[in-house]
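Section handout 9: paired folding examples.
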Amino acid sequence: MLGPLVVGAALSLTACSPEMLLPPALRPGAEVTPAPEVETPEATSEETPVETPEVPIDPEDTDVFDIFLGDCLTEFGEGEDEISSVPKIDCAEPHVYEVYHVENIEDSGAYPGETSVSDSAQELCEEAFEPFVGVDYYSSSLYVLPLFPTAAGWEAGDREVLCLIYEPDVDTTGTLAGSNR
């Protein structure tokens, strides 16, 4: 068996911290204001039914800073120097990648270079692999793809790594958590 393929891709442009990923009402120090009461009209027996729009199952391009732990993605521009959006899809639908871990690189200095950031991101993803899947990364048939900050993102304060997990040449439905593969 060939060892897992290690592929690096880069997040781009602006800073993103885990607190920024939370909805505004859940961020530390946020004040929650109750919604104003709205009067509802009385129901009549002659109401027309309202159509419920179908939720599309096709992937939607989503800004990389709007990708969260547990999100699933379809193919995107691997090998590109910078990625600003990715096709996000419901995990119940066939998908390629699942975000299984999110963590910041603990370095506050100047950008250490793409190789150093890529290596740090790969290390973070490998450390989180076994607790998520249930087997050691190098014994697994699954691969990881870390998305990490570019030099421009780093200078803007971005240190976030998104760890994606996937099975080569196979679309996954559901999660790979506890799959022991």
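Moving on to protein 2 of 2.
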Amino acid sequence: MTVDALTDVSGLRVGHATRTGDGWLTGTTVVLAPEGGAVAAVDVRGGGPGTKETDALDPRNVVRTVEAVVLTGGSAYGLDAASGVMAWLEERGRGIRVGAGPAHVVPVVPAACVFDLGRGGDFRARPDAATGRAAVEAAAASEPGAPVSQGCVGAGTGAVTGVVKGGVGSASTVLGSGITVAALVVANAAGSTVDPETGVLYGELFEGRRVEYPGAEVHAAAQRRLAETAARSTPPPLNTTLAVVATDADLSKAQAQKLAGTAHDGIARAVRPVHLLNDGDTVFALATGDRALDTANPLALNDILAAGADMVTRAIVRAVRAAEPVDGPGGAWPSYGELYAGR
């Protein structure tokens, strides 16, 4: 049985740590790999990224697998969350062995952040090592194949897309070969996910089903509401969409990097404009290696590449649809569901 989320890739678990109230509107999300790690790669397209340990994922470098990936709020400050995940992994002897003893390990924990500083009202309310530890503990405590909480949770707690509330979304598919491809995103873009002419979500135009357009009166009312709330919220100077694209296929680091790169197409379908200088758009790819790729077919990877981009688009749509409105000391951001109720 599948849950249409990242955890459909066997062995992957997702945990969130969410902080709201008293000036907080932020959090951290951890993708925990099966023990022994998963092949990992990354592709960064935004002009203002905030990342940690991404150089280690270059196919030319020695690190092949990672035990976890951290997505976090708090801009560059929030990267401290990865330290809590590293400590948790070290206590369990999980990481790259660098000495004779079982505890002599260095966990490589790639991380990327979104900008949400001050959205809860307190600029200094941001994730730290304790937040990261809480998120990885939540991931470890979850059942294999458990549903993934979506919307305003974890790293998506303070996320905004344009002037509409963003959040966390996830989606998965099983290819004809039996290989699973899935994605988890944190939708926090400087660009918009909503077509201003029609009110439809850009990403829905690529989902292969009939799109239901909002009525003219509903759309006009939504535009008025957005104009009113935009005047109350300072436009964010920095934003970012983050994603983890995963598969149970047996991929090399170079193949995983290609998957991370093509998955950015999924962001470009759902967010306009995208990959701006004030975005930090970053996609990680994970491959658990449970299913062999058809080595006799040099193009066997193509289906995985196409599905990865599709899952990112679907996950962004789900993130925006699952988000709840926020109206607080740091600003007001209506949700898509609130603006276009019933659609």
